[in-house]
Amino acid sequence: MTGKQKKTLYRILLSGVLFALGLLLPLEGIGRLCILLAAYAVIGWDVLWRAARNIVNGQVFDENFLMALATVGAFFTGEYPEAVAVMLFYQIGELFQSVAVGRSRRSIAALMDIRPDYANIEENGVLRQVDPEEVAVGDTIVIKAGERVPLDGVVLEGTSSLDTAALTGESLPRSVAPGDGVVSGCVNQSGLLRVRTTKVYGESTVARILDLVENASSKKAKVENFITRFARYYTPVVVVAAVLLVVLSPLLTPVSWPEGIHRALIFLVISCPCALVISVPLSFFGGIGGESKIGVLVKGSSYLEALADTEVVVFDKTGTLTKGVFRVTAIHPQGVGEAELLELGALAESYSEHPISHSLRRAWGKEPDAARLGAVEELSGRGVRAVVDGRTVLAGNRKLMAESGIPCEDCERIGTIVHLAVDGAYAGHIVISDEVKPDAGEAIAALRAGGVKKTVMLTGDAKEVGEAVAKELGLDEVHSQLLPGDKVAQVERLLGETSRKGKLAFVGDGINDAPVLSRADVGIAMGGLGSDAAIEAADVVLMDDAIGKLPAAIAIARRTLAIARQNIVFALAVKGAVLLLGAFGMANMWEAVFADVGVSVIAILNAMRALKVQG
Amino acid sequence: MRKSYKMIDLDCANCAAKMEDAIRKIDGVLSATVSFMSQKLTIETEDGRMDAVMKEVVRACKKVEPDCEILLK
User: Fold this and answer.
1) Of A139, A316, A461, A596, which residue is the catalytic one?
2) On chain B, which terminus has fewer CB atoms closer than 10 Å, C or N?
3) Considering its fold, how many domains does chain A have in total?
4) Given CA atoms A406, A410, A413, A417 in this order, what sign does their dihedral have?
């Protein structure tokens, strides 16, 4: 509790004691009034003071004024205990509210506490702690074990493992060695790292993420805007109703004047929309905090809302559903051993920089020995002819085989196929393809179980490849051989097919799909770590490459929306009921206080659930 | 030009909404958000008018909630 909150607590206790004395002591008339007035003064002086000051400032319908009017009015109608009690409970509620809000605000802030405090800069062999903002691009910084990486950079010296949990929600540490990039915001767990910075602080990952998170609340959800608009009209309407109640009910009905005033005062107590105004944004704030806990950045509560209503999910293929890395997936030798075929392929292609050659060498896993390799000739668009261990090896596509008059068969496997021939005889082929991410199938099943009606994949890749992947993952629709412009057209068509409330989410890796990301209702980018384009273009960023986070992200969004709606319905229902009962003289001050502060407190407690992430 | 300011002792959510409303009406303000949760004002003004506008903003906020202070840095 802050000093201010403690002071309020003491006042509540003192006033409570006085109040109890006033009720329990056998005092009559003026003595009782005096002790209750004292209790009232202790607890309510600041509300009265603020009410007066705000009227001078032209703020009439503020809650201080309403509370002051209601309680002073109660004194004049002779309900002394009620007057004190209303003020007492109002203050207790306010105190509770401020403690609860402060606490949840701190826990969310702690979640997003990835700001580095300093950087160790090395100058002439001496370490100096400086503000990360003072470090220039190309400076050498030293990151000790346990310290946070302050700026993005490249490791010059040292190996270590980095804890990326604060950024990605992933507890598995990432190991780095010289030449690897490091991302600011991670925590260095073990070794000492010397890093050359590649970005200034303002452009480094951590600053961009913080900027994004801090501005997240400016994109308000429709529900929030509704509450703001509602609050603007609610108070004046209730106050006007209270005035009408005072004036009209004694004139038109047998209700007496004091009774009319009493009912109007009940109205005033309920007229603050605080429960709604606090709990709804708090729910969204908690929801965004909960998302960031699992490594999903949501750029505003409006996107959280859209995410909750997601009906169609459109995926890009490469890098999103597949790893975007080519690997050897099948070896079909003919007359030679599997290992030998792979070795021949890897050696023959050992000078090539083509991604296919890389994957062959990676699968082989050994360093090519230059002594075994004779003349190498690259045949563009076909493959290579190389002399390996004195034998002439041809490695390439069908065309190359056909040209050399070597019969070969096509493979039933989908992917890029490298045929090999040794001294003019066919030796078999190797299939290289992009691998589906291990969690992709599960993610799509979970999305469907979570209520997503349709999953679609768009790809620029060949039809067979696209359809094979779609079949493996169980997608509803697949469109292949698309140019970037075609992807936009497909998304627009799908947007037209969604229901009025349903939203379309597009998931891509942020490379080449910025137009589609912005066209979709929710643009979701994968792998925000290190990719500026993704962070910029998307509305939601999955911080690591895990597509498996998507169903969880949508579940959190749905939960958040549900909590916000519960709060709205609950607060409006209770307030409406007490207003109605009050108008007919069936509610008392106590119930009114509950409808005001009690409801606020319950709504806040409910809103705090949004921050909790299951599992 | 876009900037954000820390707000101290912003104690009530309704006041935050009222401040936001008042700030948006100030001449030269393109957009403004007062976030009760992050205790922050994010404001976008016409170029070069930030300082003048902020004086108005402080005055407007004082009217709504005199106890709340905007940290101008």
Assistant:
1) A316
2) C
3) 2
4) positive
| Cα A596-A597-A601 angle, rounded to 5 deg | 125
Residue B42 to residue A218, Cβ atoms within 8 A: yes
Q: Where are the domains of chain B?
A: 2-71
- What are the tokens at A582? 């009050």
Residue A333 structure tokens: 């030798």
Q: CATH number of the domain that A158 lies in?
A: 2.70.150.10
Tell me the pLDDT tens digit for each residue of A467-519. Answer: 888 998 999 999 988 887 888 899 999 998 888 889 999 998 766 777 888 88
State the count of interchain CB pairs (< 8 A) between A and B: 63
Residue A136 domain-assigned (yes or no): yes
Q: Does domain B2-71 have CATH number 3.30.70.100?
A: yes
- Residue type (1 letter), A92: I
Question: Which two structure tokens, joined as six digits, stand for A489?
Answer: 């057209």
Contact A98 B14 (CB under 8 A): no
A325, A416 contact by CB (below 8 A): no
Q: Taking CA atoms, what residue in A is nearest to B34?
A: A218
What is the per-residue DSSP string for A436-505? EPTTHHHHHHHHHHTT--EEEEE-SS-HHHHHHHHHHHT-SEEE-S--HHHHHHHHHHHHHHS-SS-EEE
Classify residue A603: in a domain, yes or no: no
Query: What's the average model confidence in pLDDT over A538-560?
Result: 89
ipTM of the complex: 0.71
Q: Is residue A105 part of a domain?
A: no
Task: Identify the residue among B7, B19, B38 best suited for mutation to test binding to A, counting A beta carbons within 10 A and taking the highest.
Answer: B38
A615: confidence class by pLDDT, cuts 50, 70, 90: very low
**CB B12 to CB A285 under 8 A?**
no
Cross-chain CB nearest to A53 (options B17, B42, B66): B66
Element (H, E) at A374: strand A373-379
CB contact under 8 A, B21 and A232: yes
3-state secondary structure string, chain B?
CEEEEEEECCCCHHHHHHHHHHHHCCCCEEEEEEECCCCEEEEEECCCCHHHHHHHHHHHHHHHCCCCEEECC
pLDDT one-digit tens code per residue, A274-333: 778 778 888 888 888 888 888 888 888 899 999 999 999 999 887 788 887 778 888 888
Contact of B30 with B20, CB cutoff 8 Å: no
Q: Which domain holds residue A180?
A: 119-214
Q: Judge whether A131 counts as a catalytic residue.
A: no
Q: Does A112 map to a domain?
A: no
Domain with residue A398: its CATH number is 3.40.1110.10
Binary contact (B38, A217; C-beta < 8 A): yes
Report helix angle A63-76 to A29-56, nearest 10.
Answer: 150
Preferred mutation among B5, B7, B8, B12 to probe A, highest tally of A CBs within 10 A: B12
Q: A211: nearest CA in chain B?
A: B4
Query: What contacts A291, CB < 8 A, 6 or more positions away?
Result: A297, A298, A304, A553, A556, A557
Question: In 3D, which of A455, A453, A549, A466 has the Cα closest to residue A501?
Answer: A453
